[in-house]
Design brief:
Elements lengths: L7 H19 L45 E4 L13 H13 L1 H25 L2 E11 L17 E14 L4 H67 L5 H15 L1 H19 L22 E4 L2 H7 L1 H22 L4 E12 L11 E9 L7 H67 L5 H35 L20
Parallel strand pairs: 1-4
Antiparallel strand pairs: 2-3, 3-5, 5-6
Length: about 500
């Protein structure tokens, strides 16, 4: 006997009924369950051997010996207050002030509270029935003659009082509401990580700006010292001109050299002022009224040991990567919401109330009530709902690409910082040697010139080389300090160890 085929409509109905029953019994939600992407398997950040230690340099001045020390890169976590490694109380105080008063952080904190309240509002709207009470009073007049009743006189105007309580609840059979809340929780996580990223960036910006100010002050001091030396040398040349020992052109050359050096001083002063203006903004103060300490290189300590976590742990430690992961999670939940919209939406409603002629009898009994259940099953929307689901899937792919890009960018930042610190140490070593040699050369040439053994051009060239070497050395010292901060920023800055991050998902323990 040939089997009778089941009509398509009946098959679809049976399939839908089965899906509905399974969802109702199991309480599962349609759509993908989010999983954190796998960590990168790399064991190092850089191509070739990863540096474990930088070279040391012998500084021309023993007071600067700490800047020539070797830096070691060890396995470990960056401390929460990593800027304390510089051992500069003024820097600690300024960063604390910035974290407490920055308008940027206030904005990020307000965005976090907004996301939290949106989650709380939607949780209350979806997880609990809505209950509304309604009270009304209506003044009415009934004309019996208008309905053909003439045997009785029409009553006078009267007041009708109504009291009603309405209850409604939407069943979340397919998890659309749960996925919506999942997405809102991910949105809260995103704003929380954005706040931590802003805190980390602010601390790093304050540190690097303070270091820039210190480096500029060192360059300014060297430039002023060179100008003073050139001024003294100009006095000697003028005396020799009066004695007929040199030509007037020698005086003019020295004056031009002095003017060239003095021309650098206003620019360096302006850069120092700009750095301090920037620090004022970071700390929430106006440039005119800001109370800030002065930063100098001699008051800072080069961190000699820098902790470096494994590449596989970086994605759990950088707040910007965690924020990208939260957006990916939200995109995944949006797919579930769009999927649930393809299935029926069931709503239960109930109401009860009373109608009385007298206000004092309004709550004496309930004489009006109703119970209702509504089902809305999408049938034909011109492909809108499925197109929306596909759009959410495409949005997820975009978020996945953005997350992967954030991870790659983070790995690149660490690799660049490690190589930069390695190069900084080599550069400092070369510039320290050059500064020492040019200083010794200038001392010898100055004595030879005083004795008439060399020309003024030789002296001017020695002065120029010594001046440039001193400026380059000051810049190299500042670069090592600033790039150390850049490495700690690239590694995540230890935000999960801060008390302010209670309630956040910390990276896994090693």
């Amino acid at each position: 006997m040939r089997a009778i085929p089941t009509p398509p409509a009946r098959t679809a109905t049976a399939r839908f009924t089965l899906v509905a029953l399974v969802a109702l019994v199991s309480g599962c939600a349609v759509g993908p369950d989010f999983k954190t992407p796998d960590a990168v398997p790399d064991t190092r950040y850089t191509t070739g051997p990863q540096p474990t230690q930088t070279v040391a340099a012998t500084m021309p001045d023993s007071r600067d010996a700490r800047f020539g020390e070797s830096q070691s890169f060890v396995d470990g976590d960056v401390p929460a207050q990593w800027w304390a490694l510089y051992r500069n109380p003024a820097l600690d105080e300024t960063i604390r002030a910035a974290l407490a008063s920055s308008p940027t952080l206030r904005q990020a904190s307000a965005r976090l509270r907004e996301a939290q309240e949106n989650l709380a509002a939607r949780t209350g709207a979806t997880q609990f029935p809505s209950v509304d009470a309604k009270l009304s009073a209506t003044r009415q007049q009934v004309d019996l003659t208008s309905i053909g009743v003439t045997q009785f006189p029409s009553p006078g105007p009267f007041t009708l009082y109504n009291a009603t309580v309405q209850v409604s609840y939407a069943l979340d059979l397919f998890g659309g509401q749960r996925r919506e809340l999942e997405g809102l929780r991910a949105a809260v996580d995103y704003q929380r990580y954005e706040l931590e990223a802003a805190r980390l960036s602010l601390a790093a910006n304050v540190a690097t700006t303070a270091i820039r100010e210190a480096g500029l002050r060192a360059q300014l001091a060297d430039t002023v010292a060179i100008a003073e030396a050139q001024q003294r040398q100009l006095g000697i040349i003028r005396q020799r001109l009066q004695q007929g020992g040199v030509a007037r052109v020698d005086v003019q050359r020295q004056q031009a050299e002095l003017a060239q050096t003095q021309a650098l001083i206003p620019g360096l002063s302006q850069q120092i002022d700009a750095a301090r203006h920037q620090l004022a903004v970071y700390t929430g103060q106006t440039p005119a009224s800001a109370q800030l300490p002065e930063f100098r290189l001699e008051d800072m300590q080069l961190p000699d040991t820098l902790p470096v976590s494994l590449p596989s742990e970086l994605a759990r430690r950088r707040p910007d990567i965690r924020a990208a992961e939260a957006l990916l999670h939200q995109a995944s939940a949006d797919i579930g919401v769009a999927t649930a919209n393809l299935y029926p939406q069931i709503t239960l409603t109930a109401s009860g109330g009373t109608q009385q002629m007298r206000a004092r009898d309004l709550f004496s009994s309930m004489n009006v009530w109703s119970l209702a259940a509504g089902v809305v099953q999408p049938i034909f929307h011109g492909g809108e709902l499925r197109a929306q689901k596909r759009a959410k899937e495409a949005a997820y792919e975009q978020s996945l690409g953005a997350y992967q890009q954030a991870v790659l960018q983070g790995l690149q930042n660490v690799a660049d910082a490690l190589r930069t610190l390695e190069a900084d140490a080599g550069t400092l070593q070369a510039r320290a040697d050059n500064a020492r040699q040019t200083r010794d050369t200038l001392s010898i040439v100055s004595e030879q010139y005083r004795l008439g053994g060399v020309s003024q051009l030789t002296l001017l060239d020695a002065e120029r080389q010594a001046r440039q070497a001193a400026l380059d050395l000051a810049q190299a010292k500042a670069n090592r300090l600033a790039d150390s901060a850049a490495l700690m920023l690239a590694l995540g800055g230890g935000w999960w160890q801060e008390p302010a991050t209670v309630g956040m998902t910390a990276p896994p323990a090693k």
